[in-house]
Structure formats: C-alpha cells, structure tokens
Amino acid sequence: MDKGIGVAMSTAIFRELAVYNRWANARIYAAAFELSEGQLKRPVGIFFESLHGTLNHLLATDLIWLKRLTGEGDAPNRLDFVLHDHLRELAIDREAQDRRIVSVVEAYEEADLNRVLQYMTTKGQPLQQRIGDVLLNLFNHQTHHRGQAHACYSILTGAEPPVLDLLQFQLGQPAPDLSLLI
After folding, report:
1. Which of 7, 27, 59, 90 has the fewest C-beta atoms lying within 10 Å of its C-beta?
2. Is residue 135 part of a domain?
C-alpha cells in the first residue's frame, strides 16, 4: 500500500471540504439550469463530452466511492454510466449524495482516517488505501471535473461561470438554493 507523502490529515479539513463540495456543486448546478437541454448535452471536447456527461460522471463516481466507504447504496459499474437523462433528476440526486457525503465525513473520527479500506476498482482490481487518502481523492476528483464543467459553461455561453474558489466559500459567498430550481 502506498502511504502517499504522509500528509497530516484531520477530520476538520475533510468536514470543510465536504461542505465546500456541496456548496460548489450547488453553484455549478444553478448555472447549468440556465442552459437549454441542447446546450447541456452539446459535445465541447472534454473527456465526458458535455456538461451533462461531466455532471453524470461526478455523481457516478461519488456513488462508487460512497458504496466503497459505507457498503451501502447502489453504484454503477462504469465511470461513464448515465444515471439521469435530465438535469432536474440529476440535481435531485446530486443534492442527496452531497448531503450523504457530508454525513459520512462527519461520522469519521481522527483514527478512522488511517484505517485501511480494501475495495475493487470498476475494472475488478483489488486496491487498499487509507480512508484519509480516499477522501483526498474524492474531493480532488470533484474539483478536477467541476473545473471541466466550469469550462463547459464558459464555452457554451461565452459568459463568466460562477465562482467556485474555496476562498469564496470560506469568505461566506452564498450557495444557491437548488430546491428552488428543481
């Protein structure tokens, strides 16, 4: 098992990242609701082709990681699995899974972060990692693909996308209430 670079991890950091993750997802989804169905699904040259494909991928991978971390829930067996064809259903599920991520992370104690999680990749390869490293990957993966979604919005609209910087979250920039949009 690769121990990484020995980053000091704390539940406080992961709790902040979980809440930030929910905040940033709400902001990118609110922007997505400004677009037409055609715009959402238009291929723009990114790995999962479109904004809709990227948002689906993020939700699919979160379901996979949540299943690995908790042993509960359904998870797709492919990273490109389309969970929902329409943004409304995708947003409802996104909100639910973001609440779930916050809840799972809030339940961890410091010692849990060093506990080893054994799991199978979507290709059937057995792996093991510390839970703290899994959480680092989960939040880094979200940030990476949310950046692609952010770029999609700019490409599709020519407008400035919503600010997703962690600093803005920390300074209290509000998140939209997605329940008003779905």
Report:
1. 7
2. yes
